């Protein structure tokens, strides 16, 4: 099992996909306004003392951010201590060398605060957009991750694969001050992906967006066993889940529900799911579900229980869901940093 209260300090972060939000008059905000709002949200996350702020990459109408590194660089210029990364970077449809260069540049701008979470993403729009064959879904990620892992040495690259010409001693610039960009691999629950992260010696980030969080604990055990078998050091494990914080449980659920309902129902139409019901929402927001919705005390208690049950060292709350408005999200961030975080940190500090 992981050691959330032992070898690694507990870290608390926030993730956003730059969902297009509702303006006060009920219309959708413009893409440019949403991007500016995300920057302000990242600045607030730093001000309230959170550890990480992640911005997802998407290429579809309901999300504004397709170039998260640019947004993160703007946040870096206005912040001091918070780590800045992605949630996730869709490596399969990108060039690993350009990804590494962009994050090495962000690392310089932020004085060493850049992180990249690599994944395949839960949407596939980037594949046809950039000319990739979905039939190579697994091959693209596997080979590009292998190349990215080689790039993390920041030395001359010797690499051969099937998706591009070989590299024969080329150097990639800029180099980072620390010697490598901090990297995670985002996993949705595939044992093969968990073992792959361990083989490369890269920290693991679990996307727990449905069902009971405790069922992911075997993946953490598998990861640590695999690290040991591959001769890798003990590495941190994180989890990412959606939620919303308000002054009371009732307020939080009432604020989030219509936006969550509309987003999940729209995605469901694309994927053949039935419409989301209030009962399903309440179950997911309940003690054993994957939504962290409620007062600061309720959300903190659920984080403490599930971080302990799953065995992780970092918890990232995906705080923006659907068209939930910017000012409501800003209040959620404020409560998460000022009230939720101190309760969670004190709980794990007291166990040492």
From TrEMBL:
<dbReference type="GO" id="GO:0004497">
    <property type="term" value="F:monooxygenase activity"/>
</dbReference>
<dbReference type="InterPro" id="IPR050766">
    <property type="entry name" value="Bact_Lucif_Oxidored"/>
</dbReference>
<protein>
    <submittedName>
        <fullName>Putative LLM family oxidoreductase</fullName>
    </submittedName>
</protein>
<dbReference type="InterPro" id="IPR036661">
    <property type="entry name" value="Luciferase-like_sf"/>
</dbReference>
<keyword id="KW-0560">Oxidoreductase</keyword>
<dbReference type="InterPro" id="IPR011251">
    <property type="entry name" value="Luciferase-like_dom"/>
</dbReference>
<feature type="domain" description="Luciferase-like">
    <location>
        <begin position="29"/>
        <end position="312"/>
    </location>
</feature>
<dbReference type="Pfam" id="PF00296">
    <property type="entry name" value="Bac_luciferase"/>
</dbReference>
<dbReference type="InterPro" id="IPR022290">
    <property type="entry name" value="LLM_Atu2307-like"/>
</dbReference>
<dbReference type="GO" id="GO:0016705">
    <property type="term" value="F:oxidoreductase activity, acting on paired donors, with incorporation or reduction of molecular oxygen"/>
</dbReference>
<dbReference type="GO" id="GO:0005829">
    <property type="term" value="C:cytosol"/>
</dbReference>
<keyword id="KW-0503">Monooxygenase</keyword>
